[in-house]
């Protein structure tokens, strides 16, 4: 395996572990808000919350990203990159689009 490949795998594992730790923290602090921010359903949120530190590390060691980015939606990306009324409505519009994604994924 090349040095570049090892570096990429190390970076993926770091992102995975950071994501899982953040997910647990968000869910512990406010379960509903954490689910919304992470785009998770209750079943997945419950599993993430129940993971032990050893299980987090093992899961993070995957060679693939375990988190899903929600930047594959044109409307969402457009709303984040456009200056809507001087930015006043930009965050609200993005939040609405994200909530629609979460609702669609849950069904």
What does this structure look like?
- There is one protein chain.
- The protein is mostly helical and 107 residues long.
- It has two domains: 1-68, Flagellar transcriptional activator FlhD (Flagellar transcriptional activator fold); 70-107, no CATH class.
- 72% of the residues lie in helices and 0% in strands.
- Helix 1 (3-29) packs antiparallel against helix 2, helix 1 runs antiparallel to helix 4 (53-60) and helix 5 packs antiparallel against helix 6.
- The longest helix has 27 residues, at 3-29.
- The chain is flat, with a radius of gyration of 16 Å.
- The N and C termini lie far apart (41 Å).
- The model has no long low-confidence stretch (mean pLDDT 83).
For the record, the count of structural domains works out to 2
Total number of helices: 6
Please name the fourth-level CATH homologous superfamily of the largest domain. Answer: Flagellar transcriptional activator FlhD
Q: Class of the largest domain, according to the CATH hierarchy? A: Mainly Alpha
């Amino acid at each position: 395996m090349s040095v570049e490949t090892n570096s990429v795998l190390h970076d993926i594992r770091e992102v995975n572990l950071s994501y899982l730790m953040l997910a647990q923290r968000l869910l512990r602090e406010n379960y509903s808000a954490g689910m919304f921010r992470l785009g998770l359903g209750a079943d997945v949120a419950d599993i993430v919350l129940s993971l032990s530190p050893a299980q987090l590390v093992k899961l993070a060691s995957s060679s693939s990203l375990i988190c899903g980015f929600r930047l594959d939606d044109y409307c969402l990306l457009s709303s984040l990159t456009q200056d809507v009324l001087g930015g006043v409505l930009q965050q609200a519009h993005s939040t609405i689009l994200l909530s629609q994604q979460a609702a669609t994924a849950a069904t």
